[in-house]
Amino acid sequence: MTQTCGVRKMRRKGLAIMAVHTADHTDRTTATDSPFADAFGPAAALSCRECGTRFPLSPIFACQECFGPLEVAYDLPVGDPEALRRQIEAGPASIWRYAPLLPVPADVATKRNLHPGWTKLVKADNLARELGITGGLHVKDDSGNPTHSFKDRVVAIALEAARTFGLTTLSCSSTGNLAGAVGAAAARAGFRSCVFIPHDLESAKVVMAAVYGGDLVAIEGSYDDVNRFCSELIGDPAGEGWGFVNVNLRPYYGEGSKTLAYEIAEQLGWRLPDNLVIPIASGSQLTKIDKGLQELIKLGLVEDKPYKIFGAQAEGCSPVSAAFKAGQDVVRPVKPDTIAKSLAIGNPADGPYVLDIARRTGGAVEDVNDAQIVDAITLLARTEGVFAETAGGVTVGVLRKLVETGQLDPASETVVLNTGDGLKTLNAVEASARPTATIRPTLAAFREAGLA
Ligand SMILES: Cc1ncc(COP(=O)(O)O)c(C=O)c1O
Ligand SMILES: [Zn+2]
């Protein structure tokens, strides 16, 4: 019997590759295959998302059978959820409390890294009231990470993999936040870093990427050009010994986003919300949050209940949202044009998987325009005291639109993600966030300005 699902999905991604795989998935791993097994904790192998073939843990990212993306497969500690819950709760206030569920060594918390995570889950009653949400609303505020975006989570896992594989230079293609996270992590861990960004990013993101002392290369082109260039560099002798966190270390990198799912569930008292609103650039974060939620259910750490995943894009870069609305499986690449530069990936690698997850869970993928993004940033700031970067404006704006259009039930409980800090995208709001008045330092002038 042949399995055609691999073929179907590759067609969906527009790849000109035909391959048919046997239904019983090939296992190319043996217990002794990976010399690194101990360094990856509960991780057992890399597994192809398309055909299921397993490979030893190593710095590879594409299936040798079908070119599908690889992800980490685990032997998870199923059996005693109470003991696992206690172990996690006794752990450090960082993502390392979840080390038993991640591809990292058991002593990871003692190593030189940035210890990201355990960020605030803000109960957003004021925002809920403004949006007409009655079932409860929380903002998972990842601006509190060491370099002020969720990217510290994914980089921390990739860094440990780079250390294990003996790679000496840490690198990435970035829409901004990742470059800063890689630069900082490399500085702390004693790696060389060389990161690549599009030339037209916000100045705060350029400074954040350069200040940690590694090499920063601005490429004359879009993020998709930067990413293509990095793929070429990986195959070149110039890239030897380099760990591109989101390319050749991508299977490990992606796992960092699972910690958002774990934290949200633990901070809600070990239970799942009804809805999650998550931004999409490549789509990796959204797919791994879903993976994390599924693991929590499988491990018995939370009660098995339905949840809906909603993806959020900027209208000026909305290929996944467009495919969702058109009922299509293929994500057609676009040329981004939006103030949400951190989400400006026109050809998102995980787009088809995002569509699968939104459809499977009964969620949706929506988009908002630049004006709605700015409105949402100021709405969140004014109601909850949380200053989000444009990616947070996208999620909050999309949440508002989902409620207004009846796609999200306001009587159900929602968690909306803010994945980055507003200080990084000041340009988005600086026209409207101005002094109320500029006056002489006298009471008379204060009264004249109508402020008394
Ligand atoms: C602030 C912020 N949020 C969300 C994302 C989305 O990440 P992903 O590529 O995993 O979809 C990014 C990606 O750069 C980002 O910088
Ligand atoms: Zn495969």
Output the radius of gyration: 22 Å
- Strand composition percent: 15-25%
Low-confidence stretches: 1-23
Mass-distribution shape:
globular
Say which molecules are bound, naming each kind only once.
pyridoxal-5'-phosphate, zinc ion
Task: Give an account of the 3D structure.
This protein is α/β, with parallel strands linked by helices and 452 residues long. Helices cover 35% and strands 15% of the residues. It contains 15 helices and 15 strands. It has helices at 5-12, 81-89, 125-131, 151-165, 177-189, 203-210, 223-234, 250-255, 258-267, 284-298, 319-325, 351-361, 370-384, 390-404, 443-448, and strands at 2-3, 21-22, 43-48, 54-55, 70-74, 120-123, 137-141, 169-173, 192-198, 215-219, 242-244, 275-279, 308-314, 364-368, 414-418. A 6-stranded mixed sheet has the order 6-7-15-12-13-14, with helices on both faces. Helix 5 links the parallel strand 8 (169-173) and strand 9. The longest helix is centred in the middle third of the chain and has 15 residues, at 151-165. The radius of gyration is 22 Å and the shape is globular. It starts with a strand and ends with a helix. It binds pyridoxal-5'-phosphate and zinc ion (ZN). Residues 149-151, 175, 177-178, 279-285, 342-343, 389, 391, 419-420 line the site of pyridoxal-5'-phosphate.
List keywords for this structure.
single chain, 452 residues, alpha/beta, four-stranded parallel β-sheet, 15 helices, 15 strands, disordered N terminus, binds pyridoxal-5'-phosphate, binds zinc ion
